[in-house]
Write a structure and sequence with these properties.
mainly alpha; cell membrane; transmembrane transporter activity; MetI-like; transport; Amino acid ABC transporter permease; 400 residues; single chain
Length: 400
């Protein structure tokens, strides 16, 4: 039997044995490797001790979490009618089933996302101020995800079913939330809290993606009309802050509409957020296009592909793969910036926090309110960031 060789040409017997430093070795290497690192470690440890002591002391002894318990439904769904809450639970049930089926079909990153979804549901389930009916609904969501995971591989053409389900989930959810005359109508003026924040973010991200790709391709077009139109759009939108775009969408869009036609304030905010995000995504996509070597286009042309086929089959897949971190960063930024819609009269999650804080019954509890809102934003943004890292690892971004 031949002795295996390493890449350097040495046999495994010649290489030094692999050793694990252990906890003591890790501490010495990373925290106490020199006298100044030791001093910094001690100073930060003392600082963290006093910060942690004050924080946990306030958290346990002084915080009044009744302000969260009594307004939890308001934080999550705003003024959505309580007797119609079943529609929101149905939407979540569809999403949980799709998470489970996707995890069972694709495994890998999809399975990790399903686990994260179940952990978020479990976290809410363990909160003491959640009502019994909500706890039952959360337990059902977890069960549906698990059942979908095991049933997914048994579904014929499971991947096609999962993709079709995700594509249909958004219009079905919007139908359930609004009613559109079939179910009891629930006006957008009653949408609020986390529900409005998530809807604004999803609509802006989903619709901004194709618009951004078209704008990026248009900017590289040889037709001057298309090229300069895209340049003016991208640079004009990127040159103003998002708060200005929300004002423009709220005040200017109605001026261009025919008499008698009115667009809802929520739809106007969605249009503004979509156009703003699309301008940034267009620049990210343009950067990805420039990163693709010219030889790729020449090779595609050599095998007889036309420009459309070259972009769709060769260039765009590679360009989009390289800009995943930037796209996810922009999505996380938009999710947090949706809090600016409060200036045009919409009450998102942060707007609900401001309303609750102004309630005379809860004066002096602003810390609890904003800490809870920050926790919700952090959990969702961290889940998006985790998804990005898993996707990058799966696609080998930066490695191949």
């Amino acid at each position: 039997m031949e002795t295996p060789f390493s890449k350097s040409g040495n046999t495994q017997e010649d290489l030094p044995p692999k050793t694990k430093p252990g906890i003591g070795g890790w501490l010495k290497k990373n925290l106490f490797s020199s006298w100044y690192n030791t001093l910094l470690t001690i100073l930060f440890a003392v600082l963290l001790y006093f910060i942690g002591k004050g924080t946990f002391g306030w958290f346990i002894d002084h915080a009044e979490w009744a302000v969260i318990r009594n307004n939890y439904k308001l934080f999550m769904a705003g003024q959505y009618p309580p007797d119609q809450i079943w529609r929101l639970w149905t939407c979540l049930g569809i999403i949980s089933a799709l998470f489970g089926i996707s995890a069972g079909v694709w495994k890998g990153t999809a399975r990790h996302l399903a686990v994260v979804f179940c952990l978020i549901c479990l976290l809410h389930l363990l909160m003491p101020f959640i009502s019994a009916s909500s706890k039952i609904a959360l337990a059902v969501l977890i069960a549906v995800t698990v059942v979908g995971y095991f049933a997914g591989p048994l579904v014929p053409k499971g991947r096609a079913v999962a993709i079709a389900g995700w594509l249909l989930s958004f219009p079905v959810s919007v139908f359930l939330i609004d009613g559109f005359g079939v179910l009891t109508p629930v006006g957008t003026n009653l949408w609020g809290g986390l529900l409005l924040t998530i809807l604004l973010s999803i609509v802006a991200i989903v619709f901004a993606f194709p618009i951004g790709i078209l704008a990026a391709l248009g900017r590289t077009s040889r037709l001057p009309v298309i090229k300069y139109f895209c340049i003016i759009y991208i640079e004009a939108v990127r040159g103003v802050p998002l708060i200005t775009v929300f004002f423009m969408a709220s005040l200017v869009i109605p001026l261009f509409l025919p008499e008698g036609l009115n667009i809802d304030a929520v739809i106007r905010a969605m249009i503004g957020a979509t156009l703003f995000t699309a301008a940034y995504m267009a620049e990210y996509v343009r950067g990805g296009l420039q990163a693709i070597p010219k030889g790729q286009r020449e090779a595609a042309k050599a095998i007889g592909l036309n420009p459309v086929q070259t972009n769709l089959l060769i260039i765009l897949p590679q360009a989009l793969r390289t800009i995943i971190p930037a796209l996810v960063g922009q999505s996380i930024s938009l999710f947090k910036d949706t809090s600016l819609v409060s200036i045009v009269g919409l009450v998102d999650l942060l707007g609900i926090a401001q309303t609750v804080r102004s309630n005379p019954s809860y004066l002096g509890h602003a810390m609890e309110v904003f800490l809870f809102v920050a926790l919700v934003y952090w959990v969702i943004a961290s889940a998006m960031s985790y998804t990005s890292r898993r996707l990058e690892r799966t696609l080998g971004v930066g490695k191949r």
